[in-house]
Design brief:
Blueprint: H1 2-56, E1 58-62, H2 66-98, H3 100-125, E2 131-135, E3 140-146, E4 152-157, E5 162-163, E6 174-176, E7 179-181, H4 191-198, H5 210-221
C-alpha cells in the first residue's frame, strides 16, 4: 500500500509539474521576447545617438603635420622596443669587452635612446592638435591630440573655456582646462572659428588699471 501511494504521489507531482510548465511556458516565452525587444531598442537608441552625434560634427581643422608625426612616433616606439630587447645582448657584450664598466656604459647609452627619446618627442608633440571638430547644435569644439602610444585623446570645450596666455609658451596657442594646445591659424577651413576660439571677437581689454593709478595721485594731492 505504501509503494502504490508513493507511486501515486509521484505521478500526481509529475503531472502537476508538467501542467505548470505547459501553463507558464507561453508567459515565460513572452517575457523573454519583451526583454529581447527592450535590449534591441536600447542598443538601437544608443547607436542612433552616437551616429547623430558623429553626424553633427564638422571637421574645421586638420593638422598638416599629423601623418608625419604619427610616423615619427611609430618609428620611435619600434626602436624603443628593439632597444629593450637588445639590453641583455648589450650587457653580455659589454661584460666580454670591458667588464662591468663597459656593460653599464652601453646599457646607459642604449637606455637613453630607448626611454628618453620617445618621452622627449611626446613632450614636444603632445600639444599639437591633429583634428578639430565643431558641433553646431551644442556649440562645442572637439580637439584631437595623440598620446604616447598613438591613441587619440579628445578634448571637448567651448570658447568660454579657452584661456589665451599673455606670454605664449613653446608650441602653445591656447589653454583649455589647464591643457595647452597648439593650432596653426592658416589650416582652419573657416577663420571665424579661430577668431571665436581665441576670443578675438570679444571687446578688447587694454588693462590700463586707471583706478589703481588715480588713487596714489589723489593721496599726493591731499
Amino acid at each position: 500500500m505504501t509503494n502504490t501511494a508513493r507511486q501515486a504521489r509521484l505521478q500526481s507531482s509529475c503531472g502537476f509539474a508538467a501542467w505548470s510548465r505547459a501553463a507558464f511556458q507561453p508567459q515565460m516565452q513572452l517575457l523573454k521576447e519583451t526583454q529581447q525587444k527592450q535590449r534591441r531598442l536600447y542598443a538601437t537608441e544608443a547607436a542612433a545617438g552616437k551616429d547623430s552625434e558623429a553626424g553633427n560634427l564638422q571637421r574645421i581643422y586638420y593638422g598638416s603635420l599629423a601623418p608625419r608625426m604619427k610616423l615619427v612616433k611609430l618609428f620611435s616606439l619600434t626602436t624603443s622596443l628593439a632597444g629593450i630587447a637588445a639590453q641583455p645582448i648589450l650587457m653580455e657584450q659589454g661584460m666580454k669587452i670591458g667588464g662591468t664598466g663597459m656593460a653599464v656604459f652601453l646599457c646607459t647609452v642604449g637606455g637613453f635612446f630607448t626611454f628618453v627619446t620617445p618621452l622627449l618627442l611626446h613632450f614636444v608633440t603632445k600639444k599639437y592638435v591633429t583634428e578639430l571638430h565643431y558641433n553646431p547644435k551644442t556649440e562645442e569644439y572637439t580637439a584631437t591630440t595623440i598620446s604616447l602610444i598613438l591613441l587619440k585623446i579628445k578634448t571637448k570645450f567651448r570658447p568660454s573655456d579657452v584661456t589665451v596666455p599673455e606670454v605664449p609658451g613653446m608650441f602653445t596657442s591656447f589653454v583649455v582646462n589647464k591643457r595647452p594646445l597648439f593650432v596653426d591659424p592658416a589650416l582652419f577651413d573657416d577663420p571665424e572659428h579661430y577668431v571665436r576660439i581665441m576670443g578675438y571677437d570679444k571687446p578688447i581689454d587694454f588693462k590700463l588699471n586707471l583706478k589703481d593709478e588715480t588713487e596714489p595721485t589723489k593721496r599726493k594731492q591731499q
